[in-house]
Design a protein that fits this description.
By secondary structure, this protein is an alpha+beta fold. 38% of the residues lie in helices and 18% in strands. The structure holds flavin mononucleotide (FMN).
Length: 189
């Protein structure tokens, strides 16, 4: 089977705990970012920006997640707060997906969010094509006011989650996918 067809049919996520070093860098990282730029994007608004988080910065991001969690859940047990702190440390690279939403009468916010989603998946596909694994993660932190402020998000921006990325440390599980025809019918008017 053609490699592109194979990639599209077999795209899969890799759990963050199974993503080890090396993370993509240099030319590979450049290819992954460039793949985002060919996502479908109404009016070519490029309604996104990405923050790369690696090395010690992951611990600083973990501190932000933990503090956000503590503020949202003042009664939370220490263990739960520490779990938040540890999340960014599971994989060597995180790509924070920031929706940079723009005023555009022809392109409502929901369309711009879809373009961000397409950009993220393009990056995941390119990563997999290059032999890396990734998983798109989100959670409560994405809408947290403290997390937004700590990351420097502007009022018209949204954190659409992050891609945890690295080299898979285990063989991928074969995933069965549903029959697409159960989601599809012909409309005849
Ligand atoms: C916007 C978005 C946010 C997601 N957030 C999470 C998350 O926080 N935790 C999680 O386990 N999976 C999350 N997922 C799903 C995973 O990225 C992944 O798609 C899912 O585990 C299915 O695996 P697969 O991609 O191999 O089919 C999210 C997916 C999307 C599109």
């Amino acid at each position: 089977m053609n490699a592109a067809i194979e990639l599209l049919l077999n795209r899969h996520s890799t759990p963050a705990k199974h993503l080890g070093a090396p993370a993509p860098e240099g030319e590979h990282l450049d290819l992954i970012l460039r793949a985002a730029m060919s996502a479908p994007d109404h009016r070519a608004l490029r309604p996104w920006r990405f923050l790369l988080v690696q090395g010690e910065a992951r611990a600083r991001l973990g501190d932000i997640f933990a503090e956000g969690y503590r503020c949202r859940h003042p009664e939370a047990e220490a263990e739960l707060i520490e779990r938040q702190r540890g999340k960014p440390l599971r994989s060597p690279l995180l790509i924070l997906l920031i929706a940079h939403l723009q005023e555009c009468a022809k392109v409502p916010e929901w369309e711009q969010m879809m373009a961000v989603g397409a950009a993220a998946e393009h990056m995941q596909l390119m990563a997999q094509a290059l032999g890396y694994g990734s998983v798109w993660l989100s959670g409560e932190s994405c809408g947290d006011a403290w997390v937004r402020q700590a990351l420097g998000l502007l009022p018209h921006e949204r954190l659409a989650g992050y891609l945890a990325m690295g080299t898979p440390t285990v063989e991928p599980l074969t995933k069965s996918r549903p029959d697409p025809w159960t989601f599809t019918e012909e409309w005849t008017g």
